[in-house]
Design brief:
Length: 219
């Protein structure tokens, strides 16, 4: 499938798949979306000093890199990606410059250069494990405080937004764990509720009216 690097509305890059007319991040602003959905409504909402995060759709590593920039918490970060981004694509991404983080360039590079299927210390407080697997293959139980659900949209990959997938997410979270996603589709919200999540609609990032935050309550 053809892949192109494009510039989104806030000046940051993303990968565009013309055949699907789909992007790895919002065309209305990759960095803006990451901050709004995953930092403000995820990380800042789960207020604790030590946190374990599962990212569904590691992709370009943008969410992981922003985490490194935005928190001094002790972080255990697990990124799941079935089709890793190629290194020749990584070098074309402008996140370091757009985030004015040139002093952290080595960390962005380290995120992408570390091997898969092994836990690595990116900094003293931030560990990263990249796992190459399909989301349906995740078997973690009661492991994570927060899930960044950043899969391709339900329009192009509806099988990633089903009750079966959200059962896996529910099981992977610790009691009172939280899942955040840019999606606000009614079918997605109902699938989350069907497996036991309490779901709230929140104002969405630029270009989207709403997003969803789901909590594993009562276990």
């Amino acid at each position: 499938m053809k892949r192109e690097i494009i510039i989104t509305s806030d000046g940051s890059t993303t990968i565009h798949l013309p055949e699907w007319n789909e992007q790895y991040h919002s065309k209305h602003g990759a960095i803006q979306e990451a901050y709004h959905v995953f930092i403000r409504n995820g990380l800042k909402y789960v207020d604790q000093e030590s946190i374990s995060i599962l990212e569904i759709g590691f992709g370009t590593g943008l969410n992981c890199f922003i985490m490194l920039l935005e928190t001094e918490k002790k972080v255990n970060y697990v990124g799941v990606e079935a089709y890793p981004v190629a290194q020749e694509e990584v070098v074309k991404l402008n996140y370091v410059a757009e985030l004015e983080a040139n002093d952290k360039r080595e960390l962005f590079e380290k995120i992408h250069e570390t091997s898969w299927e092994k836990k690595h210390d990116i900094t003293n407080n931030f560990s990263l494990t990249k796992r190459k697997q399909f989301f349906s293959e995740i078997t973690d139980k009661n492991c994570f405080d927060l899930i960044y659900f950043d899969a391709f949209g339900a329009r192009v990959q509806p099988d990633l937004w089903t009750e079966d997938i959200f059962k896996i997410m529910f099981a992977a979270l610790k009691p009172d764990g939280v899942l955040v996603t840019y999606s606000a589709k009614g079918s997605v919200r109902r699938a989350m509720q069907a497996v036991g999540f309490e779901v709230e609609r929140l104002p969405g990032p630029p270009g989207k009216r709403e997003m969803l935050r789901a909590t594993k309550v009562g276990e």
